[in-house]
Structures are given as structure tokens and as C-alpha cells.
Amino acid sequence: MTLRVGIIGAGPSGMAQLRAFESARRNGADIPEITCFEKQSDWGGQWNSSWRTGLDQHGEPVHSSMYRHLWSNGPKECLEFTDYSFDEHFGRPISSFPPREVLFDYIKGRAEKSDVRKYVQFNTVARHTSYDEDTQEFTLTVEDLATGTTTDHIFDKLVVATGHFSTPTVPEFKGINSFPGEVLHAHDFRGAERFGGKNLLMIGSSYSAEDIGMQAHKMGARSITFSYRSAPMGFDWPENTVERPLVTHFEGSTAHFADGTRGEFDAVVLCTGYQHKYPFLPSEMSLKSNNVLYPGNLYKGVVWQQNTNLFYLGAQDQYYTFNMFDGQAWFARDVMTGEIELPSLEARDADIQRWLERQAALPDHNAEADFQSDYLRELIEATDYPPFDLDAVSQLLKDWMGHKESDILGYRDMVHRSVVTGTLASRHHTRWLNAMDDSLERYLNGPSQDVDTGTLATLTGDGTVASN
Ligand code: FAD
Ligand code: NA7
Predict the structure, then answer these.
(1) I need a surface site. Which of 65, 93, 118, 305 has the fewest CB within 10 A?
(2) DSSP-derived 3-state class of residue 356
(3) 127 occurs within a structural domain
(4) How many helices, marked H, and strands, marked E, lie in the chain?
(5) 106-140, pLDDT tens digit by residue?
(6) What CATH number has the domain bearing residue 342?
(7) pTM
């Protein structure tokens, strides 16, 4: 009987899984019967963002945490598909840090070229899963959000690709209930225009805090204060930006910090991260993890230890994104079809432990980048995913982090070289700090001459930095 594969979620990870099977089919393989369920009306996951917050038109939690004026926070050269380059999609070099709509266009381009949309049932949410040990079959109950009709589907293999940056972690702070200004989580942030002239408090010290804080700066916030739990980010911030240890309590619009300082604020943005949440899975199949590079209980970061018919994609914290999801999807595909034979439970456990021990000893961000490069290397080496120079990408990630250290407002103006095509990115026509239109149209069809290069530094082809 043909293998039946269910995929939950058609974000970049679910799309990678579809593409992995399609790639095998084009190489002459018989592929399983595939059904992908996506609760939104389009694919793209986080990249398919909207103005909505809270609940969507069907009363479902809004998935995407992305917002207006979101520009890639890492170089696009670190996430490029090896089987579908940026050059192929755009037909010319583009900059290294494109806005959301441009990257969304890119991932859609590959999926459309692969003709895999036919496998996806949109507006369909996964509600409940059970597993029969005897028949080794999953029963997945899904709901058609347009009609409210539920149906059961039987699968031999189930892929969870629902992402883990959607359900916010919302801690309590004494007195915050009486804070008179706006309080929101980053998940509900849609744009910083309204923070112009305001004093803004951001709680958290990771990607969301940094990006929303600097976007608020760009949109004219009067001051930005970051409040950290573990450690300050330590960037060379603009002069209206400070970092303080964690808020101890609020009194009206005053926030008190652990170092005894305090400040008056107009708005608070909780950039306190996200929870892994799988309400459609029973607890014994549900991943419990913080946002880490190697969640436990997943062999090669993908295969559920207690049930090797269950797969998770994209469950890691991410230096790599789209190309790592590819590596995972290709690996999961080959495990499903038997192309890759799984070792014993004990051997898999030992492998997981090896990664967890290495993770526990990671000294810094550079080592984290190497860690994820090595992880991805193992996946790619086990499959026929077109290989690429992971050491070069690791170096690129380190260069990127170095650029952030030296210029937090300017790192997105740097250009990097593709390890897939060798193409050096073009400089964008407008510096990030001055780019107030993040549309695809403006990005691609803005002035052809550089209008705003200033003292922009450029990473030259051999990796050195030059000013012009
Ligand atoms: P998601 O993109 O989250 O997609 C999951 C999909 O599953 C969604 O379409 C969702 O609707 C669907 N789904 C969820 N639950 C169900 C259900 N029960 N039934 C059916 N469908 C369901 N990465 C970068 O490379 N560069 C960036 O600049 C970048 N910026 C980011 C900024 C923000 C604010 C966030 C939150 C993330 C950012 N990321 C960035 C990381 C981003 O998460 C990944 O690029 C990528 O979107 C992860 O893909 P995914 O498919 O694993 O998950
Ligand atoms: P992250 O990277 O998971 O970071 C979460 C941050 O929130 C981190 O600094 C945490 O501090 C902080 N945090 C978590 N809980 C608390 C509490 N209770 N109090 C104070 N601070 C807390 O999430 P992001 O949203 O920044 O990024 C997620 C993705 O979105 C990422 O891929 C980006 O590309 C965009 P800690 O350092 O753990 O002490």
C-alpha cells in the first residue's frame, strides 16, 4: 500500500517537506500519498503576515508574529536554497537583507515552480491526533475553517511543521496591571510608527527586542530602554537607547529596575519569546522545549524518539532557516521511505546526548553558528540535498554578528556573497535606516542609482570590508 504522509503546517518547513518529496518524484521515485493542512488561506507561515492580531476571522489565534517594516535580520546568503537560488528567482543580484515581502516572494517562487500547492488543504486546522500502536497509524482530525466541518485522516507518517514563534511567553510583573500606557507582546506588534516621540520599554534581550527597539528608533521614538533578565545585548546603541537589568515592578507609568534605577514610559513591549505549543497533539507526542538549538528527544533534531513515525521540522532556534528546513525535510523523507535506516533507540539516544552535551558547552554565538552548521552538515551528508559550503556560511554568520557589534543600525547595508552562485549581493538603493517603504515594488523598482549610500561600508568579494 502507498505510504500516507500527513504534514501539519505549510510554512517554510512544511513547504520544504513538500519540495523534498517532489524532488524525489522528479528523480524517478514513487512518492507517498501526501496531504498538507494549513490553517491560513495561503502558505509561507510567518512570512505570510497580516495586520490582524489576537484571533483571526475564524476565531483562530493569529499565527504570524511578523510586522510592517520587517527586514531580514540575517544575510539572505545564509538561508538560500541550493536548488533555487536568489539569482534564479529575481534574475539579478539583490541586497543581502531584503524586507519580508521579498523573502516571501522567494519562498513562494520555489514552491510554485515545484507545483506542490495541490497537496495543501488551506483554511484547515489540525485539531486532534491519536496513534494506534497496533496498526501504527495516526488519526488526524482537522477542521475546515470555512464550513466548521471536521474530518478524520489516517496517516502512516506525520510531520509537525507548525513553527514555534507564535504562542507568546507572557510573564507577570508586579504593578503592570495598572500601567496606564499600551502593553503588548512582540507577537502583537505590527509597526512602530505610533511610538514616534514616545518613551518605550522593551523587556527581553534577543532578536525581537533588538529589532523592534531599533525600528522604534527609526520611526522616531524619543527613547528606548531594554530590560534584560540574563545579560544585556551590549550593542553600540544610538544615544537615545539604554539597557537596564530586569524590571522589578511598575508604579503607574514608572518602571523600577533591579539596579535601583527607574524610568517613565509611554508603552511596554514584552519581547519575551515564544512557547512550543502543539494543542493538536497528545502530551506523549508533544515536544516540550525552550527555544534552543537542539531540543531533546528528537533524533537528528527531527525524528521523535518514542515514535519514529512522527517528525518535527523547524523545532530549533535558528541561525539557518530555509536551507536547514530543507536538510531536515530531505532527511525526514528518506527516513519515511526507508532510504535511511534508523539505528536502535539506544544509539539514537546516544546521538542526541552527544549533541545536547555539545550544546551545553557552547561558549558564544560564534560557536553556536558552528554548531548549527555541523548539525546541518550531518543532515545533508545523509541525503541527496545539493551540498553547499557550510564553512563559508558559518563564516558569513560570524561576519554578520561582527557587523552588528560594530554598527547595529548599519549591518543591513552590508553585502555578502552567495555560496550557491558566487554572486555578490547588490547594495540596496536606500540605507536601512532611511528605507521607509518595505514593499516588494519599491525594493525592486526603486531608484536604479544609489541615492543614499552615505559612508556605507561594503563587504568585498574576498570577505574584507571597504568603505565607499
Ligand atoms: P512557521 O513559519 O511558523 O509556519 C508554520 C505554519 O503552520 C503556519 O503557516 C501556520 O499557519 C501553520 N499552523 C500552525 N498551527 C497549525 C494547525 N494547528 N493546523 C494547521 N496549520 C497550522 N527567519 C529568517 O530566516 N530571517 C528573518 O529575518 C526572520 N525573522 C523573523 C522574525 C520574526 C518576528 C519571527 C517570529 C521569526 C523570524 N524568522 C526569521 C524565523 C521564522 O520563524 C522562519 O524563517 C520560518 O518562518 C519558520 O518556518 P516554519 O515553517 O517552521 O514555521
Ligand atoms: P528569543 O530569542 O527566544 O528570546 C526571548 C527573550 O525573552 C530572551 O532575551 C529571554 O531572556 C527573554 N525572556 C524570556 N522570559 C522572560 C521573562 N520571564 N522575563 C524577562 N525576560 C524574559 O525570542 P525572540 O522573540 O527575541 O526571537 C524569536 C524569533 O523571532 C527569532 O528567530 C527572530 O528571528 C525573530 P534570557 O536571555 O533567556 O534570560
Answers:
(1) 118
(2) helix
(3) yes
(4) 9, 22
(5) 999 999 999 999 999 999 999 999 999 999 999 99
(6) 3.50.50.60
(7) 0.96
